[in-house]
Amino acid sequence: MLTPEQVKAMIEAVAKCEHVEVEGDGHHFFAVIVSSEFEGKARLARHRLIKDGLKEKLESNELHALSISVAATPTEWAQKQS
Predict the structure, then answer these.
(1) Confidence bin at 59 (pLDDT 50/70/90)
(2) What local confidence, expressed as pLDDT, does residue 24 receive?
(3) Which residues fall within 8 angstroms of residue 25, CB to CB, at 6 or more apart?
(4) Which of 10, 18, 23, 33 is the most buried (most CB within 10 A)?
């Protein structure tokens, strides 16, 4: 069973991230991802970038479910924190 820390490491291996938070119960995970790689990308493209990078883990069911709650650029994230 995966831990939130392991899922965080998987996400960080897919994209250069400035901030990642992962919560989960070993089966279902929820992530907040802040990455400069999201610049100029629509919401769906941001999610695809991460999900495509984790495709093998998702298809093998090693990573059962990942919901990306936030996929923001560093600027967008800073604005949300203000």
Answers:
(1) very high
(2) 97
(3) none
(4) 33
* Nearest of 62, 52, 47, 48 to residue 6 by alpha carbon: 62
Give a yes or no: residue 59 inside a domain: yes
Q: How many domains does the chain have?
A: 1
What are residue 71's DSSP bridge partners? 33
Residue 78 DSSP SS3: helix
Query: Which residues, in sequence order, are CB contacts of 57 under 8 Å at separation 6+?
Result: 10, 63
* Position 41 pLDDT exceeds 90: yes
Do 17 and 33 form a contact (C-beta atoms < 8 A)? yes
Look at the pTM and tell me if it is higher than 0.85: yes
pLDDT at 37: 98
What is the C-alpha to C-alpha distance for residues 12 and 5, in angstroms, rounded to an integer?
Answer: 11
